[in-house]
Amino acid sequence: MRVTAPGTPLLSVRDLSVSFRTEAGLVRAVRSVSYDVAPGEVLGIVGESGSGKSVSSLAVMNLLPGHAEVTGSARLNGQELIGQSDDALSAVRGSRIAMVFQDPLSALTPVYTVGDQIAEAILVHETVSRGEAMRRAVDLLHTVGIPNAAQRATAFPHEFSGGMRQRVMIAMAIANRPSLIIADEPTTALDVTIQAQILDVLQTARRMTGAAIVLITHDLGVIAGIADRVSVMYAGTIVETGSVDDVFYRPRMPYTLGLLGSIPRADAGERQPLTPIEGTPPSLINLPTGCPFVPRCPMAQDICRREEPGLLPIAGREPADTQRAACHFKDDIEQRQLTSRDIFPAPLPSSDAVRSVPREQRQQMLVVQDLVKSYPQMKGAVLRRKVGEVRAVDGVSFDIREGETLGLVGESGCGKTTTIMEILNLGRPASGHIAVLGHDTARMSGAEKFGIRRDLQVVFQDPMASLDPRLPIGEILAEPLRAHGVAPERVSARVRELLTLVGLRAEHVNRYPAAFSGGQRQRIGIARALALEPKILVLDEPVSALDVSVRAGVINLLERLRDQLGLSYLFVAHDLAVVRHIGNRVAVMYLGRIIESGDVDEVFDRPAHPYTQALLSAIPLPDPHKERARVRIVLKGDLPSPANPPSGCRFRTRCQKFANELTEPQRQRCIDESPALLPRTGSPDHLDACHWATAVEVL
Amino acid sequence: MTDTLQPDGGPAPGLQSGTASGSGAQAPLEDAAASRLQLVWRRFLRQRLAIAGLVVVALLFGVAYLSPYLGRWQYDQLDFTAFLEPPSASHWFGTTQNGFDVFALTMRGLQKSLVIGLLGALMATALAATVGAFAGYFGGAVNTALVTLIDLLMVLPAFLIIAILSPSFRGHTWLIFVVLLAAFQWMVTARIVRGMTLSLREREFVHAARFMGVPGWRIIFRHILPNMASLLIIDATINVSSLILAEVGLSFFGFGVQPPDVSLGTLIGDYANAALTFPWEFYFPAAFLVILVLAINLVGDGLRDAFDPNAQGHH
Amino acid sequence: MAAFLLRRLVYLLCLVVVSTSVAYLLAATQLRPRARYEGRNPPPPVAVVDARLDELNMNDKVPVLTRYRRWGAGLLRGDLGRTIDNQPVNAEIGRRMWVSLRLVVVGAVVGTLLGVAAGAYGAVKQYQLADRVLTVSSFVILSIPAVVLGVLFKNAGIGLNNALGFKLLYTTGELTPGMDPWSAAGLVNRFAHLVLPSLVLIVIAVAFYGRYQRNAMLDVLGSDFLRTARAKGLRRSQALIKHGLRTALIPMATFFAYEFALLFVGATFTERLFGWHGMGEYFVESVTKNDINSVAGVTLFVGVLVLIAGFLSDLAYAALDPRVRV
Question: Smallest CA–CA separation between B313 and chain C, in Å?
Answer without folding.
Answer: 6
